[in-house]
């Protein structure tokens, strides 16, 4: 059977031809217009990026290479019969557009395990971080440091031909993803536990190893949750802040490590990935303030206090989605199956029924429904991972799978430096204002 790299070597020239022909026929077709409101409004709805792995529909949610989440759960190989899909399989799908066989999936598991070790100086760097340094800052720091061994950076300084860029990008992408469990678990063990990190087991899958390094692999359900979690958070088309940042930095031909470190810094913002920590914080604070058995009316009042205080309700709303996020639903299904009686899950379900009504009445939010971050914390809490400041690190490990897939294609397709046009208000007024 062919390895992922061998298969890619076959696919890339075909895809290059496809894109060339498509551009020849449709290159001057107009994709959309941009209004002044959109320029001031975070470019919402502006169509200006190419992203091969996934496309997000406002109503339906994400599709990975055309497949919905339930389809991925059905079609991608799993570790447990009928269980959650393996992130290794999703990576293969995102990179090639093809569902891998169990054998191909296993080959990725083995490669990632074999590439997992991190240099001693990166371990030292993490060990010397104060426990008070936010886990996301530590994560980004370590990824920048791993740049030391970048194949792409080395090849570039040795004068690589641009036609060959994808090869060392692929090697860096594989190394980077492979090393994340050692980086992320070290942060967790240092900040919250005894600082000891288990060894990678070469015959085990990525999620088992990551769970084991964190100290949670004894619980088979937690390992299954990790497989689902790493699949769900991987990719959300190209315009989300972490994906877009990684892509933008990559377009300068900074190597995959430097590019992904930037993506992590985007993910660490409370309007993006940090929302999963904020959801837990907000929910706990609410319980402290109005009690664990608060009535719907008390919860509604607490929500209005949040909104009137000029704060967002974390875990709700979305820049593109206009319905409940299917990633939320997949996590809800997991909870219904594994922790139906959990009191925190009951509260999350209750909030799911109250918050959209309040946000609608408030009248600002374009989408009052929950996003992926509204549900991840309750699952982690249930299995004993209580430290919410760590949650965005898990999101980051997963996001690498999506953004590294695309970076391989960015370099395969020879996408250029990204550089859109900007204007000042004064200039725009001169261009358009009526006298
Ligand atoms: N709570 C309160 N107000 C909100 C919320 C919310 N959950 N969502 C949007 N709004 C407000 C928003 O702040 C804006 O107010 P203003 O006009 O005063 O600036 C107004 O509603 C219109 O915003 P939208 O067009 O609905 O949302 P936008 O596309 O600008 O932003 C989010 C999308 C996701 C940033 C926004 O919904 C939000 O802040 N949600 C809470 C944070 C969150 O859950 N983020 C995680 C997103 C998923 N992820 O992992 O990245
Ligand atoms: C994501 O997964 O990146 C978030 O849902 C944010 C987004 O898509 O804009």
TrEMBL record:
GO biological process terms on file: carbohydrate metabolic process; citrate metabolic process; tricarboxylic acid cycle
Under the heading SUPFAM superfamilies, the entry gives: Citrate synthase (SSF48256)
Catalytic residues at: 272, 318, 373
**Leader sequence segment:** none
Determine the domain of life of the protein's source: Eukaryota
Q: Which GO terms describe its cellular component?
A: mitochondrial matrix
Asked whether the UniProt record includes Manganese among its keywords, one would answer no
User: What Pfam families does the entry give?
Assistant: Citrate_synt
Q: Which GO terms describe its molecular function?
A: acyltransferase activity, acyl groups converted into alkyl on transfer
Keyword list, A-Z: Transferase
Q: Membrane-crossing residues?
A: none
Q: Which family does it belong to?
A: Belongs to the citrate synthase family.
Protein name, please? Citrate synthase
